[in-house]
Amino acid sequence: MRLPTQLNDLDLTAWDTYEDLITDSLWLVGRRDNGSVHSAEYWGNFVPQIPYQAMRRFTKRGDLVIDPFVGLGTTLIEAVRLGRWAIGVDLQPSCVEQTRQRTRLTENPHRVQVEVFVGDSTHEEARLLVQQQMRAWGFEQAQLLILHPPYHDIIKFSNLPEDLSNAADTDAFLAAFERVVRNFAPLLEERRFLVLVVGDKYAKGEWIPLGFYCMERVLRNGFRLKSLCVKDIQENRGKRGQYSLWRYRALKHNFYVFKHEYVMFFEKLAQE
Ligand SMILES: C[S@@+](CC[C@H](N)C(=O)[O-])C[C@H]1O[C@@H](n2cnc3c(N)ncnc32)[C@H](O)[C@@H]1O
């Protein structure tokens, strides 16, 4: 039998003092934590509590985190605050530039470094850039991979054809998502965690379970599922002030309004 290894800096003799750490699968996080230099203005970023929870549970100070869909850098900002090194990639140069500025403005009490690259995470070139940076810092592998892809075309992030939000259909989106998993999984240490944050979508009156489809793609690439958490979503900009309208539509058209997304935790299997 495999002995459990400690992936974090938690002192389990004081386990009952970690009141900020979530251990249940229902995440009622509420409003975003807008402390530090986080931005609420990017429609499509996740709340800082997600990378915070993942890093506290599944990394130690001085470990390395990779985020191939870095957006405005929520993961990297939390990494700096928590003393984790981190590398992000995004297709959009404006995201990369803003992430750079924000991480520079973040207080860095543990003197870690973070880097961010413009790149297509489905492509080998992006992985090579990340690998080069890892080697320059002396990391053989990373200790956490955080994936927060577009939820297909729910939000269109750019006009770039490589953007997952421009995938022609669900199959094309899933194929591109799987390419990102295959591209970055080799950089993750065995028995370490991949965190997937994703939600479902509607198309032509049908609920498309993107979350479960993406979960399948991760599982078939050398991972096992450790936890599937359901997190509340607060009104986003698109629906702000329109809740009554959505409630009416739900009653009329026999569906339920999305109020959740998934935070899934996978462990990379060891090669026997
Ligand atoms: C859901 S957002 C991530 C937001 C991020 N978690 C944050 O808090 O800011 C998805 C991001 O993936 C990027 N993206 C889409 N396709 C990509 C690709 N092929 N390679 C790299 N980034 C991509 C988009 O530009 C967008 O910024």
Q: What characteristics describe this protein?
A:
two-stranded antiparallel ribbon; Rossmann fold; eight-stranded mixed beta sheet; 272 residues
Strand and helix layout:
Layout: E1 26-27, H1 49-58, E2 64-67, H2 74-82, E3 85-90, H3 93-105, E4 114-118, H4 124-137, E5 142-147, H5 170-184, E6 188-198, E7 201-203, E8 206-208, H6 210-219, E9 223-232, H7 243-253, E10 260-268
Helix pairs in contact: 1-2, 5-6
Summarize the structure.
By secondary structure, the protein is α/β, with parallel strands linked by helices. The chain has helices at residues 49-58, 74-82, 93-105, 124-137, 170-184, 210-219, 243-253, and strands at residues 26-27, 64-67, 85-90, 114-118, 142-147, 188-198, 201-203, 206-208, 223-232, 260-268. It has an 8-stranded mixed sheet with strand order 1-9-10-6-5-2-3-4, with helices on both faces. The chain has a two-stranded antiparallel ribbon with strand order 7-8.
